[in-house]
């Protein structure tokens, strides 16, 4: 090499490394750059290096370790590889007054009006669909192919329920949990007040009645798909498949009294009920909606 010709990038880096008394392995350990790439940089074997972006990053890191100007060395490295720096974009001022660049005002107004009309149609359609769904729920009607026979909920006579030995008397403080044996739609709301939850429960999914609820009421068309756990008690299904439940109190004493008064033929055998699963610490349940609104916030299904 001519004594007056400048050193290539690889040679300059190697010379600076030697001046510091460092081995190439030392550079690899400090920079985490593979040793084979450092050797290729010093030898000028650019075919053994990765894409330019990564190779330039290696060169800049190496330069900083040995005390060289990383930006200058990176520019020389790009030039040696025969790659030019990124082209500079020429700024062309935009002239709003240029008719070829500005859409006619009439066209802009038409486009805006069309968008507003489409948005209004969509909102009206969504509102009508939601209204129909709410009307069917309120009326207790579903499509004819799925409509079950509506049987009024029998009024439970005041009966003092018997309880197994060792179980305490029921109280309003007992936790009431609904568990779904299969996909079932339910609505839980305060009597004459806001909706606490409305939506579907997946098989094995549970809903815990909020302890702050004053007089929660249940509505469902598939009571046979739900079992009720009240503290240490597990009640039978709330009713047969032909029963539509409306305004059923979910307070613990009322549920236990109703279970005791329900005719034996309306109760399902224990084999038809889901196995109760004790709530695990931190397990999520469907959240209650804000006052006056319906919620579809569902918890992940809990497999029994």
Keywords:
7 helices; 304 residues; alpha+beta; four-stranded antiparallel beta sheet; 434 Repressor (Amino-terminal Domain); 13% strand; 8 strands
Can you tell me about this structure?
- Helices cover 33% and strands 13% of the residues.
- Helix 1 packs across helix 3 and helix 4 packs across helix 5.
- The chain is built from seven helices and eight strands, in the order H-H-H-H-H-H-E-E-E-E-E-E-E-E-H.
- The N terminus and C terminus are likely disordered.
- It has a four-stranded antiparallel β-sheet, with helices on one face. Strands 3-2-5-8 form a four-stranded antiparallel β-sheet, covered by helices on one side.
- Strand 6 and strand 7 form a beta hairpin.
- The radius of gyration is 38 Å and the shape is elongated.
- With 304 residues, the chain is of the alpha+beta class.
- The protein has two domains: 72 residues, 434 Repressor (Amino-terminal Domain) (Orthogonal Bundle), CATH 1.10.260; 152 residues, no CATH class.
């Amino acid at each position: 090499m001519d004594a007056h010709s400048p050193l290539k990038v690889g040679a300059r880096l190697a010379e600076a490394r030697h001046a510091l008394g460092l081995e190439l392995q030392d550079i690899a350990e400090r920079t985490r750059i593979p040793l084979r790439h450092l050797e290729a940089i010093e030898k000028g074997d650019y075919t053994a290096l990765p894409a330019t972006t990564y190779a330039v990053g290696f060169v800049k890191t190496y330069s900083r370790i040995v005390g060289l100007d990383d930006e200058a060395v990176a520019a020389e490295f790009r030039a040696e590889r025969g790659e030019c720096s990124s082209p500079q974009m020429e700024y062309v001022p935009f002239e709003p007054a240029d008719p070829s660049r500005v859409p006619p005002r009439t066209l802009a107004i038409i486009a805006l009006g069309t968008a507003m009309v489409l948005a209004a149609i969509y909102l009206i359609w969504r509102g009508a669909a939601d209204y129909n769904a709410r009307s069917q729920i309120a009326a207790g009607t579903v499509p004819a192919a799925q409509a079950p026979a509506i049987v009024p909920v029998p009024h439970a006579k005041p009966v003092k329920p018997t309880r197994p030995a060792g179980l305490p008397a029921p109280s309003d403080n007992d936790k009431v949990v609904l568990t779904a044996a299969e996909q079932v739609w339910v609505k839980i709301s305060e009597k004459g007040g806001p909706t606490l939850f409305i939506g579907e429960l997946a098989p094995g999914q549970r809903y815990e009645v909020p302890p702050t609820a004053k007089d929660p009421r249940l509505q469902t068309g598939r009571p046979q798909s739900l079992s009720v756990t009240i503290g240490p008690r597990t009640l039978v299904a709330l009713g047969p498949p032909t029963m539509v439940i409306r305004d059923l109190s979910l307070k613990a004493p009322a549920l236990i009294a109703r279970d005791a008064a329900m005719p034996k033929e309306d109760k399902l055998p224990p084999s038809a009920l889901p196995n109760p699963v004790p709530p695990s610490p931190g397990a999520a349940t469907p959240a209650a909606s804000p006052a006056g609104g319906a919620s579809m916030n569902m918890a992940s299904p809990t497999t029994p």
